[in-house]
TrEMBL record:
This is HTH arsR-type domain-containing protein. Residues 4-99 form the HTH arsR-type domain. Transmembrane segments: none annotated. InterPro entries: ArsR-like_HTH (IPR011991), HTH_ArsR_DNA-bd_dom (IPR001845), HTH_MetalResp_TranReg (IPR051081), TAT_signal (IPR006311), WH-like_DNA-bd_sf (IPR036388), WH_DNA-bd_sf (IPR036390). GO terms for molecular function: DNA binding; DNA-binding transcription factor activity.
Amino acid sequence: MSEEPGDGVGEVGSVLGALADPTRRRLLDLLAAQDAATATTLAQWLPVSRQAIVKHLAVLDSAGLVVSCRVGREVRYSLRPAGLDATTRWMSSLAADWDRRLAAVKRLAEAAEAAERDST
C-alpha cells in the first residue's frame, strides 16, 4: 500500500499500534459488552490502575477506536466501530492480494503436475 496523504496509512498504523497491546484489546472487548463505561468501571475488570486505564483509553481515542463523553463529573467511553474502517479495508485488500497470489501458485503447481503426468 502506498503512503499517499489521505490514503489511511497513518490511520491504519495508529489502529494497529493501539491494538498491539493486550490491555487495550481487552478494554475494547469490555466496551463492546456494554453501552458505555467509565475508566473506574473498566479498572474493576483489569489488573491495572484506573490511571493506567485512562492512558490506554487515550491511546484508543487517539486511534479513533473509542469516543468519550462527559456526563456530569464522569467521563464515559464507548466504542467507535467506524475507527476500524480504514484498517478493515487495508486488511481486506491485503487478503485479496494474497488470495490472488496463492491462486497463481496453485495454477502453476497444478500445471507442473499435469505436465509431469503427461510426460510419463
